[in-house]
């Protein structure tokens, strides 16, 4: 954030505001962690803040402090719409265009509130009065820490805030193994632990609370893995029937796509998950090195994200989608084995 933006935010928060904080649809650890951290911070300042999620999110994130105060737009629609209608300030976190919030989009587009955006994805829209966008950041949660620091309030970071921020950084960095993890990231994490973040408990709550169905589904996913050594690629498919047979719950496939990258010589991994209710194939893409899955997703699968982690969708069948995917691989020279 530049000096002018910091002063604008300080002026906005110097008076009482009715604040709505919004993550993207199907929020992950970084989205929920950043929104709850900011919610705690703003309410502790004396502001009236509410987090409204476009829809539900995984059970392994519902232990987080403040989770019970989040409004689900799909399930608590009347209350959520009232909060949006009366908001004077709307802060969007971990996304940068309003198409990422599903049914909430039109309500935010018609809002007269002032907008602040905090996000680390590429190509941000210009809907916000203050846009804090940095694609080099490990996570939106690290940016929320910076945001609090810009305001001169890191001494106001409580254990609750620290645990929320730690969760988002941990999940979005793959437990600190992705290239976006910098020395600054580790210094932020060290300060969070000093301020009360319980790293052992966070790891346990996120990664060690699996259901038997999820582990059996992982076995199914790995059995379905297709390895294309000639294009340094591995992909997984999961049909709706396979999800149903393993009592699929939201969040159960989180992280599955990364298993492809654990194979020697593989630099591009994908997972294709059938969603009959929405009539789409949900796609997650991961890479290592210089191959940009952000560009790949934007060009071919109506998606985007980061250079090494992106998502998309397809309205073709599962078989047609994977056929399209395999045919595209042949056009990328950097995926051909040397």
Can you put this structure into words, describing what you see?
It comes from Meishania litoralis. This is Bifunctional oligoribonuclease/PAP phosphatase NrnA. Keywords: Hydrolase. Its EC number is 3.1.3.7. The protein has 2 domains: 3-207, Alpha-Beta Complex (inorganic pyrophosphatase (n-terminal core)), CATH 3.90.1640; 212-335, Diaminopimelate Epimerase, Chain A, domain 1. The strands form 2 sheets. The chain has a 6-stranded parallel sheet, with helices on both faces. A 6-stranded mixed sheet has the order 7-8-9-10-12-11. Helix 4 (105-109) links the parallel strand 4 (89-93) and strand 5 (114-119). The mean pLDDT is 96. The radius of gyration is 20 Å and the shape is globular. The protein starts with a helix and ends in a 9-residue tail after the last helix. By secondary structure, the protein is α/β, with parallel strands linked by helices. The chain is built from 12 helices and 12 strands.
């Amino acid at each position: 954030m530049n000096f002018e933006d910091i002063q604008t935010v300080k002026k906005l928060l110097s008076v009482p505001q009715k604040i709505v904080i919004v993550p993207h649809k199907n929020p992950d650890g970084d989205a929920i962690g950043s929104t709850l951290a900011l919610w705690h911070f703003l309410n502790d300042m004396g502001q009236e803040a509410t987090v409204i999620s476009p829809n539900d999110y995984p059970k392994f994130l519902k232990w987080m402090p403040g989770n019970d105060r989040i409004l689900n737009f799909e399930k608590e629609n009347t209350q959520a719409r009232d909060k949006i209608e009366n908001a004077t300030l709307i802060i969007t976190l971990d996304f940068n265009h309003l198409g990422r919030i599903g049914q909430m989009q039109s309500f935010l587009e018609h809002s007269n509130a002032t907008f602040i955006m905090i996000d680390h994805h590429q190509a941000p829209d210009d809907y916000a009065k203050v846009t804090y966008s940095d694609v080099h950041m490990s996570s939106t949660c690290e940016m929320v820490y910076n945001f609090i620091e810009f305001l001169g309030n890191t001494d106001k970071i409580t254990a609750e805030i620290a645990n929320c921020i730690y969760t988002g950084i941990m999940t979005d960095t793959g437990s600190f193994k992705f290239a976006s993890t910098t020395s600054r990231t580790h210094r932020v994490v060290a300060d969070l632990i000093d301020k009360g973040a319980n790293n052992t408990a966070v790891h346990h709550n996120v990664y060690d609370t699996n259901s038997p169905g999820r582990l059996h589904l992982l076995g199914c996913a790995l059995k379905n893995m297709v390895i294309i050594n000639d294009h340094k690629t591995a992909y997984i498919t999961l049909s709706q029937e396979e999800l149903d047979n393993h009592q699929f719950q939201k969040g159960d496939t989180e992280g599955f796509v990364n298993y492809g990258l654990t194979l020697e010589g593989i630099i591009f991994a994908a997972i294709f998950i059938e969603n009959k209710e929405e009539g789409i194939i949900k796609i997650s893409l991961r890479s290592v090195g210089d191959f940009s899955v952000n560009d790949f997703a934007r060009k071919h699968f109506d998606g985007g994200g980061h250079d090494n982690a992106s998502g998309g969708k397809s309205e073709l069948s599962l078989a047609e989608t994977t056929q399209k995917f395999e045919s595209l691989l042949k056009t990328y020279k950097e995926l051909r084995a040397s």
